[in-house]
Amino acid sequence: MNWITNYVRPRINSLFSRREVPENLWTKCPECGTMLFHRELSDNLNVCTNCDHHLAITPRDRFAALFDGGAFVEVKVPDPVADPLQFRDQKKYPDRMRAAQKSTGEKEAMLVAEGEIGRTPIVAAAQDFGFMAGSMGMYVGNAIIAAAERATKLKRPLVLFSAAGGARMQEGILSLMQMPRTTVAVEMLREAGLPYIVVLTHPTTGGVTASYAMLGDIQIAEPNALICFAGPRVIEQTIREKLPEGFQRAEYLLEHGMLDRVTHRTKLRDELVSILRMMGRMPAPTKADLPAPTPTAPAIEATPDPAAPEPAPAKAPKSS
Ligand SMILES: [Zn+2]
């Protein structure tokens, strides 16, 4: 033993661990500043337990919480041409893509899956704001078409969770062409008589708002989500006027007839099940499973053994 093992190494370890622990285990709520423990936060679907602020949630985490037993099957999305314009700003487009893939662990900005929610079969698509701001490029267009085709084939409703900064500028006009493409995909569902439900999450803006995100049969939004085409700052600078409080937020849009519902994330699943079953003319959702059969009490004919302890009374069925 010497001063290196006793003194230097612990100092070095503490320096590194000190830096890592808060980042991994704690998240600061951007609204109220409360430090939230990661497990507590993910148990509450990334909603602040103190002020109810809805933080971003990845499509994979959302699907895990949405589908029965967290079980879903991914729907394959055809790959588009990579970097069609050889686009370059401060970084090359393929480099940006690789960085986004590394940080999110996802291939692209949209995840499509099929499964059951509340025993109601659906196809779902969710946009990942963490992946290049959820921007709509050719892949997202392909994903929505794949989702709509799958839903039509299986005769299932489509539920879409939007989150985007708009179209992907690195794909130029090709990203803007996804607006009519996705509109046609939604039209395909309409012709097949299948419900299309959109859940708008914070933020949904630009070309996404101008196409598939506003074409739902039912439009639901998460509380306080920013939903707009051009953002409030741009509008303020253009018209040189102060905008009203809460402008372009979910509650404001609900009040002005742009939305059908504003629903808390923790209540969203139940609400989706009810709506989907109503639209599909299915019986009302089962709220709870029947309790598992308890070991049967000894038959009446059997002579009770006086030495044996009395059987425990059967537990009342748990309701939730
Ligand atoms: Zn908070």
TrEMBL record:
| Protein's cellular compartments | Cytoplasm
Q: Which UniProt keywords apply?
A: ATP-binding, Cytoplasm, Fatty acid biosynthesis, Fatty acid metabolism, Ligase, Lipid biosynthesis, Lipid metabolism, Metal-binding, Nucleotide-binding, Transferase, Zinc, Zinc-finger
What is the primary gene name for this protein? accD
Outline what the protein does.
Component of the acetyl coenzyme A carboxylase (ACC) complex. Biotin carboxylase (BC) catalyzes the carboxylation of biotin on its carrier protein (BCCP) and then the CO(2) group is transferred by the transcarboxylase to acetyl-CoA to form malonyl-CoA.
Per its record, how is this protein called by name? Answer: Acetyl-coenzyme A carboxylase carboxyl transferase subunit beta
Listed EC numbers:
2.1.3.15
How many cofactor units bind, and how?
Answer: Binds 1 zinc ion per subunit.
Indicate where this protein is primarily found. Answer: cytoplasm
According to UniProt, the reaction catalysed is: N(6)-carboxybiotinyl-L-lysyl-[protein] + acetyl-CoA = N(6)-biotinyl-L-lysyl-[protein] + malonyl-CoA
Q: Which HAMAP family match?
A: AcetylCoA_CT_beta (MF_01395)
Q: Does the keyword Repeat apply?
A: no
| Oligomer and partners | Acetyl-CoA carboxylase is a heterohexamer composed of biotin carboxyl carrier protein (AccB), biotin carboxylase (AccC) and two subunits each of ACCase subunit alpha (AccA) and ACCase subunit beta (AccD).
Q: What is stated as this protein's family in its record?
A: Belongs to the AccD/PCCB family.
Positions with a binding annotation for Zn(2+)? C29, C32, C48, C51
Taxonomy of origin reads: Bacteria, Pseudomonadati, Pseudomonadota, Alphaproteobacteria, Rhodobacterales
Question: Low complexity bias: where?
Answer: 283-305
Entry annotated with the keyword Hydrolase: no
What are the CoA carboxyltransferase N-terminal domain coordinates in residue numbering?
25-294
Cofactor(s) needed by this chain: Zn(2+)
Select a single GO molecular function from the record's annotations and give it: acetyl-CoA carboxylase activity
Q: Pathway involvement? A: Lipid metabolism; malonyl-CoA biosynthesis; malonyl-CoA from acetyl-CoA: step 1/1
